[in-house]
Each structure stands twice: as structure tokens, then as C-alpha cells.
Design a protein that fits this description.
The structure is a single chain. Among the domains are: about 110 residues, Serine Threonine Protein Phosphatase 5, Tetratricopeptide repeat (Alpha Horseshoe), CATH 1.25.40.10; about 130 residues. By secondary structure, it is α+β, with helices and mostly antiparallel strands. The chain has a 17-stranded antiparallel sheet. The protein is built from nine helices and 17 strands. The chain is globular and about 75 Å long.
Length: about 475
């Protein structure tokens, strides 16, 4: 059951009503103790949540966060993932450069699970650490033996095809077909692991083949196409090709190179350069706009905190398009997490983005989520001056306006967007979950200039929902 209402006023009264209603609904579940079956269900749900978050942290190389998650998993009563959690806790410690911790964990694993396939893997990791600490001659002999071992690529992915047809019946009973096409999507991944080196390749994209208009509507889409190489011992990694990045000030998909290097146990340097990709349908590299940037990830407070600062600069046809500095701060402990992002444009001397998210899960599994999102819409760049103009690029616009006038036009075409969201979710049992959410958003007006009409402010728009989710009905 879901109710959706949009209002511009009295949103505070609505928010209070939502919170009170959800608290009242939760009272029966707070007043009585859990049965053994309910506790087991909650523990199982927590294990599944933690193991998935830990896997994501490892994939994103957020090793401090992974250490915390796997430690929390090991503090729970024994469960099916206990052995995996212990193994990957050692892996996370090793990749952080904490070899003493890693050796201790690996030895504990071998003692607890001696006759398992995992023990073989863990013994190999332990041997690799011990070998690295031994004499150079012994290292060379073992390295030669490792090279002689057979290596094989692991290939996985998915392929799907759909046929789409849109036909309309006209008033004279005639029919007209507007769409008749075969849509193909491919996700291809290949991985080669050799010792402490890993190479990955990935392609995701698709092809739409139209049976109308002499195939004029055929479209190739390339979302990802890159090669990725990592050396876990040195901390070096690089990725080249079409890729997507949402950190370090990068605004999404691009064709180029990203690289990272662990310059110290607590610091990682990231470099990036490339050409923005505005649409995945683009099957060539557009070199008219290019960017470069650097960021530093710091682990200087505790395992619960991740801090990153960055600088990025972008040019459009040799004209400065964007020059920004920013910072990202992440906090994570079991049951609590937060993210803050700030992006400030030096060229336009204004705040581009401020984003703050927080999540808190209480002992009764009531979860509170809040979001504050204040940003330019679109992200301010010199290229925004092209909005509403007949000129197709910045050089053409320079024939009619000076650089300072183009800079002002870019500001005129950029609105201020503000959004505030609060949500609550409460699992009643394994099948039922209650939820409520409220969002207040606004978009500022933009002035008329250079033949482009003004746009009015949206005012405050308020949206709220109350819902009940039922699962396992059949």
C-alpha cells in the first residue's frame, strides 16, 4: 500500500505526522522481547548485509572499511560465512600492508580449518608473505617456480537479446509501425591472476538493429571498454579505456587513463586524464574536451574514516571549462555510516556541490536515512554557455562574445538545486517492512540573456510516501 502526495506548503506538519505514525506502528515490536526464531532471522539478515558490504568494500579497495566489516562478522555467533570472513580479514590486512596482522590471521585460519580448500589458498598467501621476507636467492627460485605454473583466463558475463515492435492503428484502420528493432546487450569480463598481479578486461554495451528506414536507426552503445591491471604487493594499479568514475571530481564516464599508487601505508595517490563521454552511444573518441586531475586518499584518523582530496581541470577547445578542488569524507561503523562531498569551482568562484548522507540503524532494526543535496544544475562549466545558442561549440561562440561574456552566460544558464530527504524503514518480521520518506526540493530561477528566455523558480516541492512491503507471498 503506497500513498504519494505533492505539496508546496505545510511540509513540516506532514513530516511530524509521518514520524509519529511510524513510531506508533513500531511500538508493539519494541514492547516485547524477541523470540529465538526472530533473533536468528535478524542475525542471518545482518550477516548477509555485512558480507555484501564487505565484498563491495574489497572491490572498491576500501580496505579499512573491509577490516571493520569482517571483524564485525567474526564477532557474531558462528554462521556459514565465518571462515570466509576470517580469510578475507587477512587479505584486507595484507593489502593494507599490515603483514604481521595478516600472518597471524592466516595461521589462525589454517588451525581452525586445516582440511579445507580455503586452507590451501590461505597457506599460499602465508607462504608468499614469508617468501618476501626471505633471502633474494630463495625468492628467485620460488618466483621461477611460480612462473612455470599454468595460468588461465577466467571469462564470465552475459548476453541478452530482445525484439521490440511498436505498431499504431490509425483512424482509417490502417496501421503504422514506428519501431521494429532487435536489441542486443553484452557484458563480457575476463580475468587473469598470476601471483600478486591481476589483469581484467571488461566490455559492456549493446547494438540496436532496426528493420526500418534501411537500417538508418541502427545504434552502437559502448558503456565500458577497458583493461585494468593491479599489483597487490606494490599497490600500483592502472585502467585504460572507456570507464566510469564518480570520485576525484570526475563527472562520470570518460575515455582515458586512471592510475593509483600506494605512496605510503596511509596515503594513496590517484591520477586521471581523459576525454568526457556525454553519451554511451558515442562510438568514437571526442577530443574537443579533455581533463586531468589528481587526488589523495588518506587513512590518518582510524579504520572507520576515509578521506580524499582532489584537484581537477577541464578544457573545451583550449578554453578553461572547469577548475575545481574538493574533498570526500566517508565514515563507517556497523549500523552507522556517513558521506560528505564538497566541490568548489575555482574559475567561477562558487560552490558546485555539497552532498551529505547519513544512515543509522538502531537495535530494533529501525533505520533512519537523511540526505542533503545542494548543487549547481547542471554542474557549472564554461560549456553551459552553449545552452540555448545556435553555436555548436565554444570557438563558434567566441565569434560573437568575449571570454568574460561567455563566462557570464554560463552562470546565467546554471540554476541552484536543493534537495532534502529523510526516510525511515522498520522490518516488522521476515515478510513485512514499513517505510516512510519525505523530500523537499527546489530549483532556482535563471535570468534571460543572449536571446535565451528566463526560467522561473520551482518553489519548494514536497513529496512524501508511506509504504508497506510484503515479501514471500508465494
Amino acid at each position: 500500500m503506497t500513498h504519494r502526495i505533492s505539496r508546496r506548503t505545510s511540509w513540516l506538519r506532514s513530516a511530524i505526522a509521518i514520524v509519529l505514525s511510524l513510531v506508533l506502528l513500531s511500538l508493539p515490536f519494541l514492547a516485547f522481547g524477541e523470540t529465538g526464531a526472530q533473533a536468528d532471522t535478524h542475525t542471518s539478515a545482518e550477516v548477509n548485509r555485512l558480507i555484501e558490504e564487505a565484498r563491495q568494500a574489497m572491490a572498491l579497495q576500501q580496505y579499512p572499511r573491509a577490516v571493520q566489516l569482517y571483524t564485525k562478522l567474526l564477532e557474531l555467533p558462528p554462521h556459514p560465512y565465518s571462515s570466509d570472513a576470517l580469510e578475507y580479514l587477512g587479505v584486507a590486512r595484507e593489502r593494507r600492508g599490515q603483514m604481521a596482522h595478516a600472518k597471524k590471521i592466516y595461521r589462525k585460519y589454517i588451525a581452525l580449518y586445516p582440511k579445507t580448500k580455503g586452507a590451501i589458498r590461505v597457506q599460499q598467501r602465508l607462504t608468499a608473505i614469508l617468501t618476501a621476507e626471505q633471502s633474494p636467492q630463495k625468492k628467485l627460485r620460488l618466483a621461477k617456480k611460480a612462473r612455470e605454473e599454468k595460468q588461465a583466463w577466467q571469462v564470465y558475463g552475459g548476453l541478452s537479446q530482445y525484439y521490440r515492435r511498436d505498431t499504431f492503428k490509425l483512424n482509417n484502420n490502417a496501421t503504422r509501425t514506428t519501431v521494429s528493432q532487435l536489441e542486443t546487450s553484452l557484458d563480457y569480463n575476463a580475468r587473469l591472476r598470476s601471483g600478486e598481479t591481476e589483469i581484467r578486461t571488461r566490455f559492456t554495451g549493446g547494438y540496436d538493429y532496426s528493420f526500418l528506414n534501411n537500417n538508418a536507426d541502427n545504434k552502437l552503445e559502448i558503456r565500458n571498454l577497458y583493461v585494468d591491471s593491479r599489483d597487490f604487493r606494490s599497490g600500483l594499479s592502472a585502467r585504460i579505456g572507456r570507464q566510469r568514475q564518480s570520485s576525484g571530481g570526475v563527472l562520470g564516464r570518460f575515455d582515458g587513463l586512471s592510475a593509483a599508487m600506494q605512496v605510503a601505508p596511509q596515503y594513496k595517490l590517484n591520477l586521471v586524464a581523459g576525454y568526457p563521454v556525454l553519451t554511451s552511444a558515442l562510438d568514437t573518441i571526442d577530443t574537443s574536451t579533455y581533463f586531468f586531475g589528481a587526488s589523495v586518499d588518506a587513512d590518518i584518523i582510524s579504520d572507520a574514516w576515509d578521506i580524499s582530496t582532489y584537484f581537477i581541470q577541464q578544457h573545451n577547445e583550449r578554453t578553461l571549462d572547469r577548475q575545481a578542488v574538493g574533498a570526500e569524507v566517508r565514515y563507517f561503523t556497523p549500523g552507522k555510516s556517513a558521506l560528505a562531498l564538497i566541490d568548489y569551482d575555482l574559475y567561477f568562484a562558487q560552490l558546485n556541490t555539497f552532498l551529505a548522507l547519513a544512515s543509522w540503524t538502531f537495535e530494533n532494526e529501525l533505520t533512519l536515512n537523511t540526505t542533503v543535496d545542494i548543487r549547481n544544475s547542471p554542474t557549472i562549466t564554461t560549456s553551459n554557455a552553449l545552452i540555448g545558442q545556435t553555436a555548436g561549440d565554444i570557438p563558434a561562440l567566441l565569434n560573437s562574445y568575449s571570454k568574460s561574456e561567455i563566462k557570464q552566460l554560463a552562470q546565467d544558464r546554471t540554476a541552484d538545486s536543493k534537495s532534502y530527504t529523510m526516510s525511515l524503514t522498520l522490518p516488522v518480521n521476515e515478510r513485512i517492512q514499513l517505510g516512510a520518506e519525505m523530500t523537499v526540493s527546489s530549483l532556482s530561477a535563471t535570468p534571460a540573456s543572449a536571446g535565451v528566455e528566463a526560467t522561473p523558480s520551482s518553489g519548494n516541492d514536497t513529496y512524501y510516501t508511506v509504504d508497506m512491503t510484503l515479501g514471500d507471498l508465494f
